């Protein structure tokens, strides 16, 4: 039944150690998004893919990269996590740009 | 002016009460409007889309006032299970990626027995 799946749900990494978060969807949606959400803050868009077309937000640090090898999967790579990168990372999908977005359960990242 | 602004609350109401949340948005070109619900440490879940003059879904009614750039959410007969943070969400409406959504910080609702 799960439509947007994120793995792992909890990730602990060391300062500076690369980490990859994954997202998959069974909705066959064109658009996939990655958001970062910190406590008591709004989700902040990092980037999104419209099909294979990658769109980076202007204020997303270079430390964050993404890959979308096919329609179903999208990955978030954090090359050198800092303590400030500890957050919930949310993947979302939408059929088209501007439409309703459906979120996965999120990956909670802890950096030690 | 913030792009999407909401009263953070918390709103503490008894069961059965009617409660209303308001949201203002800054870009008159925005075309898509939503209310999402987010439980503590969980993902946002779509509650309602608001596309025209508003719509109703059971105990929930959303209204849109384009002239004032204002959206509201009314919850009637509040249940304990309505306790959550309610996020007002608007599409960017300008520049590249104008379809991208901008989230408010949310309004926290706590329904008490």
Question: In words, what does this structure look like?
Answer:
The complex is a heterodimer of chains A (112) and B (113). With 112 residues, chain A is mainly beta. Chain A is built from no helices and eleven strands. Chain A has strands at 4-7, 10-13, 19-25, 31-37, 44-50, 53-56, 64-67, 73-78, 87-94, 102-103, 107-111. Chain B is mainly β and 113 residues long. Chain B contains no helices and eleven strands. In chain B, strands 2, 4, 5, 9, 10 and 11 form a six-stranded mixed β-sheet that branches. The termini of chain B are far apart. The A-B interface holds A 40-43, 45, 48, 55, 88, 90, 96-106, 108 and B 4, 31-32, 34, 41-46, 49, 87, 91, 96-101, 103-106.
Question: Which helices and strands, and how do they pair?
Answer:
The complex is a heterodimer of chains A (112) and B (113).
Chain A: E1 4-7, E2 10-13, E3 19-25, E4 31-37, E5 44-50, E6 53-56, E7 64-67, E8 73-78, E9 87-94, E10 102-103, E11 107-111
Parallel strand pairs in A: 2-11
Antiparallel strand pairs in A: 1-3, 3-8, 4-5, 4-9, 5-6, 7-8, 9-10, 9-11
Chain B: E1 4-6, E2 11-14, E3 19-25, E4 33-38, E5 44-50, E6 54-57, E7 60-65, E8 70-75, E9 84-91, E10 101-103, E11 107-112
Parallel strand pairs in B: 2-11
Antiparallel strand pairs in B: 1-3, 3-8, 4-5, 4-9, 6-7, 7-8, 9-10, 9-11
């Amino acid at each position: 039944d799960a439509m947007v799946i994120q793995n792992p749900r909890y990730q602990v990494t060391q300062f500076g150690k690369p980490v990859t978060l994954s997202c998959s969807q069974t909705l066959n949606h064109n658009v996939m998004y990655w958001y970062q959400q910190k406590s008591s803050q709004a989700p902040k868009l990092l980037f999104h893919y419209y099909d294979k077309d990658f769109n980076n937000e202007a204020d997303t640090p270079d430390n964050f990269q993404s890959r979308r090898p096919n329609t179903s999967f999208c990955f978030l790579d954090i090359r050198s996590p800092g303590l400030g990168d500890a957050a919930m990372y949310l993947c979302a999908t939408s059929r088209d740009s501007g439409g309703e977005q459906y979120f996965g359960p999120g990956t909670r990242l802890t950096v030690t | 002016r913030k792009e999407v602004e909401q009263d953070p609350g918390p709103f503490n109401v008894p069961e059965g009460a009617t409660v209303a949340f308001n949201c203002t948005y800054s870009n008159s070109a925005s075309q898509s409007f939503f209310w999402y619900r987010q439980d503590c440490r969980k993902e946002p879940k779509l509650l309602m889309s608001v596309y025209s003059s508003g719509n109703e879904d059971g105990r929930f009614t959303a209204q849109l006032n384009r002239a004032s750039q204002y959206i509201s959410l009314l919850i009637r007969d509040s249940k304990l299970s309505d306790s959550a943070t309610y996020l007002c969400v608007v599409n960017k409406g300008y520049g590249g990626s104008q379809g991208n959504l901008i989230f408010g910080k949310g309004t926290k609702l706590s329904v008490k027995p």
